[in-house]
């Protein structure tokens, strides 16, 4: 089960966003595996996608539709089949799905963005299965279906991931609600596997895209479960503009920062939820690196630690084997690192000072931290003022079992 993560509650609808789910039978029988999102006229959409060169067919189609400049009116999301590694047939299936949605909603096919998640390289019959349930899906569209949609987009996730936040701006209440799925194959190079965030704020144009980029940099681009990047990663930010405020079109607008911060907080919650629900995870591990020459250096050290199987398995075993931490720090590519200036903490317990075991550290103190579900790790490189934080999890027996059995 997910580490310190409860099922969604108090999820707020976003004016101008309606959702619906259905059982399309794409891979499994008896589970909801199709999600339709309908956006009110005038909504604006920004998105980021995986940089994996083997990106899935729906990624290519969604990118193309956004590049054409049509106003996005709908998103269609299926689980059970990634429609990746499927060549021309996969592209045709993604495009056909968009046409089916467009026909049902009365919009242009270019106004529909397709998304898929599931097994890579499987034959596709998506368009036919989606078309069969779309009429019922359209009838079921409603603003209060966020939790159902968050559950319908899951694959190996053990819990739906959805949250809301509200702020006041010029006397008007602004709502931000988001959902995400992801559990394994997580080391995003832009976003998580699939994430959708909506707001009724009138965030338009370049300000919308910039807001998404800045939010991603401090959330989904700071997580890792296993170091693997997906073929299907996508994150979408939707702004319906239904809140009664003048549009925010520039990042220099005094209101932009408040909106960005609210969206970033939702994105961070969702990103951390993905790590807390990492396949087989039993520990949630925030890693903060300070004292670096620049942020890139700090991130390099953090990810080297987060991707070490030796460190991840030690955390699973609740073993304060801090020598593994030093080995990872020392091999992170900071060639001129003065190890005599390095300090390391597990929680509030300093285990390393001046590059060696802290004289006040005891194995019992380290063990007391390691048995906890959430174990913050902090490293001071002692060479500058830069810092950065990422979030990861441990590596358990269940991770191997889940991924060995995934296609069976």
UniProtKB/TrEMBL annotation:
Q: Does the keyword Acyltransferase apply?
A: yes
Q: What is its EC number?
A: 2.3.1.1, 2.3.1.35
Which major enzyme category is it? Answer: transferase
Q: Which UniProt keywords apply?
A: Acyltransferase, Transferase
Name of this protein? Bifunctional glutamate N-acetyltransferase/amino-acid acetyltransferase ArgJ
